[in-house]
Amino acid sequence: MAPASLEAAGETSSSGVLVLGRVSDDPAQHYDQLKPLLDYVVPRMADVGIREGRILMARDPQQMASYMRRGRVDWVTETAGTAMLLNQRVGARPLLLTERDGVSRYRSVFFARRDRGLSSLDDLRGHRIAFQRPSSTSAYYVPAGELLDRGMHLEILLSPDDQPAAGSVGYLFARSELNIATWVHKGLVDAGVMSNVDWDNPARVPSTFRRDFVLIGQTPDYPRAVEVVRGDLDPRIAARLREVLLEASNDPAGREALLAFFGTTRFLPLDPASERALAGIGRGVARIKADVE
Fold this sequence. Notes:
By secondary structure, this protein is α/β, with parallel strands linked by helices. The protein has helices spanning about 25-40, 60-70, 80-90, 135-150, 175-185, 195-200, 205-210, 235-250, 250-260, 270-290, and strands at about 15-25, 50-60, 75-80, 95-100, 105, 110-115, 130, 155, 170-175, 190-195, 215-220, 220-225, 225-230, 265-270. It folds into 2 domains: about 5-105 and about 225-285, 3-Layer(aba) Sandwich (D-Maltodextrin-Binding Protein, domain 2); about 110-220, Periplasmic binding protein-like II (D-Maltodextrin-Binding Protein, domain 2, 3-Layer(aba) Sandwich). Helix 1 packs antiparallel against helix 9 and helix 3 packs across helix 10 (about 270-290).
């Protein structure tokens, strides 16, 4: 087996090859999660000329955008923030919503220690917040966009010992949800943010921490994950891919492949509320890239 990051050798759907992409920091593990669904999809797309499936990993959204621009990746599974970043950079089109573990929509929740005296998002001015990583939708793009919408200025800090300017919100990346909870609990930062799904997971927020925390704000719901295709993908191929994915949860042969695909339980059509939420996330992503980064 070729390494996952090298699996696509330049062929695309125009030559009968459907290439599935993923931004990944663990290509070997993600290959095993992507391959079963790709193997399920490809035989069901023979009527539109697809005869083979391949996987191509990217180290970051910038590399994935380059792959899509050059036609090397046809279909990408991503969180909403990265999906909208790809939409803005290379015209990637949202195809379907992805429901994982029975959850198709979630929200970002902000929290602090009870003894910090913070009770609302407006109290964050002059304080420090922990995000997860620069590519996170629930723990960076959406909450950062929410703070910007409230007229707050965000500035990255050099370390937890660094302090933001008066009236600004200083932020750091903690790399994982558990680290976010730990940093808040230890007082390294004043507040943290993550999805409500992670907030409710004791492996992310231990009960010994949680009893010392208070929620200080939350965002509206938005799609948990999105399947996107490159903008110039043959419409017949895109339509057939959409049809196959929508039907997979009703097919016993597709359910196991779905579960391997990051715990996917089904794919859902884009509804008007989700389209509005994605558009809002897209505006936030553009503003973060322009004003914060």
